[in-house]
Amino acid sequence: MNYIQNNQEKIVLLFVRFALAIGFISAVADRFGFWGNAGESGIGWGDFESFQAYVAFLNPYLHLSLVPIVSWVVTILEVVFAILLIFGLYVRSTAFLSALLLLSFALSMSLTSGVKAPFDYSVFTAASAAMMLFLYLSSDKLSQKVEIKK
Prior knowledge:
mainly alpha
């Protein structure tokens, strides 16, 4: 029973890692036009300039000269986090940093667009998944034997 449960846990953790990673990759692909062009149906940004405009909107306190820097930093972080999650490297730290990044997106979206926006785009859900991955890995549960008592 422990063998099956342990394998199920590993599968769930792998699914969470890949879901977060693919979410990051998809967002980056969108801002470089891989999903389509700006203004097309279902396209969030379509180009990096539109993404930078969105970053400026989400961060009205930023000086305009910092918007390109922040845009590139979050893009690079999302790519690095995706790669680390896919290859299973530094997963605990990556999950924590991913949760912080996603939570910062969610809070910025809430403040500028209202709380509905981050819920519509499941940003709080992704942040929660990343935090749960971090907390699970922090508990060393994978190295413990789980006993089910009836």
